[in-house]
Amino acid sequence: MIYTFGYSKWTVERVRTKMDELGIDLLVDLRTTPFGRFSPAFNKPELVRAFGRRYVWKGRCLGGKPGPATEEGIGWLVAEHGSGRRLLLMCVEMDPRNCHRLIDIGARLLVRGIDAIHLIHDGTEHTTTEYGFPWPQE
């Protein structure tokens, strides 16, 4: 299973609790630049300390800036999912409708048969499909 969330209204402890509740194996940092200007607890060194081997930064191949995630990055997610690992993809943007974790990564995973679940800070969850994917092709 692949979950996503935007950490802007979360704490590190809440992330840890949610990972334990959902049986998440790996926190995958999607940020191109792995630093939280307004949330220093989400800077890469702090996340490495907090989660150890349960944290990985994949911003080079899955970051949203300057462009879409690479095929290599999407392939890595598909392979991890296929191995049975449960992943939690992390970015800063609270609303997935405004973030590449839905618009780019979620849509590309859905094409490959993986419907990611997007965790919202208010406790609700929505799949990529629920957000209206697949989008009409032009």
How does this model look, in words?
The protein has 138 residues and is α/β, with parallel strands linked by helices. The chain has 5 helices and 6 strands. It has helices at 12-22, 44-51, 59-62, 71-82, 100-111; strands at residues 2-6, 26-29, 55-57, 87-91, 117-119, 125-127. A 6-stranded mixed sheet has the order 3-2-4-1-5-6, with helices on both faces. A hairpin with a 5-residue loop joins strand 5 (117-119) and strand 6. The longest helix is centred in the middle third of the chain and has 12 residues, at 71-82. The N and C termini lie far apart (29 Å).
Give a quick account of the main beta sheet: strands, pairing sense, barrel closure.
6 strands, mixed
| Class per helix and strand makeup | alpha/beta
Round the Cα radius of gyration to an integer and report it.
14 Å
- Which regions contain 5 or more consecutive residues with pLDDT less than 50? none
**How many beta strands in the DSSP annotation?**
6
Helix content: 25-40%
Mean pLDDT: 94
Strand content: 15-25%
What is the number of helices?
Answer: 5
SSE pattern, N- to C-terminal: EHEHEHHEHEE
Q: How many independent structural domains?
A: 1
Overall, the morphology is globular
> Distance between termini?
29 Å
Q: Order of strands across the biggest sheet?
A: 3-2-4-1-5-6
